[in-house]
Write a structure and sequence with these properties.
It is a single chain. The protein has about 290 residues and is α+β, with helices and mostly antiparallel strands. It folds into 2 domains: about 150 residues, Fructose-1,6-Bisphosphatase, Chain A, domain 1; about 110 residues, D-Maltodextrin-Binding Protein, domain 2 (3-Layer(aba) Sandwich). Helix content is about 35%, strand content about 20%. The chain contains 8 helices and 12 strands. The strands form 2 sheets. The chain has a 7-stranded mixed sheet with strand order 1-2-3-4-5-6-7, sandwiched between helices. The chain is globular and about 50 Å long. GO terms for molecular function: inositol monophosphate 1-phosphatase activity; metal ion binding. It catalyses: a myo-inositol phosphate + H2O = myo-inositol + phosphate.
C-alpha cells in the first residue's frame, strides 16, 4: 500500500493565525482548571456510566470555550461533547455538520473523563477548527505534563512552542501502539489485534484518552494508534497535530483521510501499512 500525502487546502492566513492564538489561550486556561479540580472524589450517579459521564468541569470549560469563540469568531458554529448529541452514523454526522459555514469548531473539554475523575494523569482538553478538508488548527492540552501541543495546517506542530517533526521510523519491533475501548467495551477483533501486535513484538496500551493516544504518535512516543469508535471532538485536535508532525492518517479501508469518521489509524509513515494489516486481519477474522 502506497500512501501519498494530500496537498493541504489553503485558508485565510490571518484567520488561521488568530484561531491558532485563541485556541492556544483556551487550552492554557483549560489546563489550569483540570489540574485544580481533577481527582476530587466525584462519582457518577447510579444511572450514569463512569465511562460516559458529563462532569461539572466539562460543562464549565465547554461553556467558556463557546463564549470565547462566539465573541472572537461570530458565525462559525461550535460543536462539543457536553452540549451536542453525538451522531450515531456517518450520514448523521455530516448532516449535523452541514450548513453554510465554511468552518466549524469542535471541542472536547475533558477527554479522558474517567481518568480525570480518578485523578489519573491521562486526560486532556482538545479543540480544533475544521473546514471541509479536515482540521485547520488543533490544540491538545496535556495538563499533567504542562504541555500545550498545537498545530496549524501547513505550519507544523509545536510542543510549548518548540517545533515537533517525526523522524524516520520503518520498524515496529519494540514499539508501542495505542488503542481504546469503545463505549461498550472491546471493539470487534481487538483481542486478535493485540495478539498480532504481540507477535511482532509490539506493545499495546490503552490510555483512556483518544486525543492523547494520537498525540503520542505525533510526538514519536508510539509508532501508531488505532481507534475503532469515537466522535469528531475526541480526535480532531490531535489529528491536526499528527498530520503536521508528519504522521500518516488512514481510514478503516487503508485510504488516506485527514478526518476518518468510522475507524482510524495514525502511524509513522514507514509502519502504517504493517499496522493496518494487523488491524484489517484482526477484524476480518473475528
Amino acid at each position: 500500500m502506497t500512501v501519498l500525502p494530500t496537498p493541504p487546502a489553503q485558508s485565510d492566513p490571518a484567520l488561521v493565525s488568530r484561531a491558532f492564538e485563541v485556541a492556544g489561550r483556551l487550552a492554557n486556561d483549560a489546563a489550569d482548571v483540570i489540574i485544580a479540580t481533577a481527582g476530587r472524589g466525584a462519582q457518577p450517579a447510579p444511572t450514569e456510566s463512569p465511562f460516559d459521564w458529563v462532569t461539572d468541569t466539562g460543562r464549565t470549560l465547554e461553556r467558556h470555550t463557546r463564549r470565547v469563540l462566539a465573541d472572537e469568531f461570530p458565525g462559525i458554529p461550535v460543536f462539543g461533547e457536553e452540549f451536542d448529541a453525538a451522531p450515531t452514523t456517518v450520514a448523521e454526522h455530516w448532516a449535523a455538520r452541514a450548513g453554510t459555514a465554511k468552518f466549524r469548531w469542535s471541542v472536547d473539554p475533558v477527554d479522558g473523563t474517567a481518568n480525570y475523575v480518578a485523578g489519573l494523569p491521562w486526560c486532556t482538553y482538545s479543540l480544533a477548527m475544521l473546514d471541509e478538508h479536515g482540521p485547520v488548527v488543533g490544540v491538545v492540552a496535556d495538563p499533567y505534563r504542562t504541555q500545550i501541543y498545537a498545530a496549524a495546517r501547513g505550519r507544523g506542530m509545536r510542543a510549548n512552542g518548540t517545533p515537533v517533526r517525526l523522524g524516520e521510523q520503518r520498524e515496529t519491533r519494540g514499539g508501542i501502539v495505542c488503542t481504546e475501548l469503545t463505549r461498550t467495551g472491546p471493539w470487534r477483533g481487538m483481542d486478535r489485534f493485540i495478539t498480532n501486535a504481540a507477535s511482532a513484538q509490539v506493545g499495546v496500551r490503552l490510555l483512556g484518552s483518544p486525543a492523547l493516544a494520537i498525540t503520542q504518535v505525533a510526538l514519536g512516543h508510539a509508532v501508531a494508534a488505532v481507534l475503532d469508535s469515537y466522535q469528531e471532538w475526541d480526535v480532531a485536535g490531535a489529528l491536526a497535530l499528527a498530520t503536521e508532525a508528519g504522521a500518516t492518517v488512514l481510514d478503516r479501508r487503508g485510504e488516506p483521510n485527514p478526518l476518518p469518521l468510522d475507524g482510524l489509524l495514525v502511524a509513522a509513515p514507514g509502519v502504517a501499512a504493517d499496522v493496518h494489516d494487523w488491524w484489517y486481519q484482526a477484524v476480518a477474522h473475528s
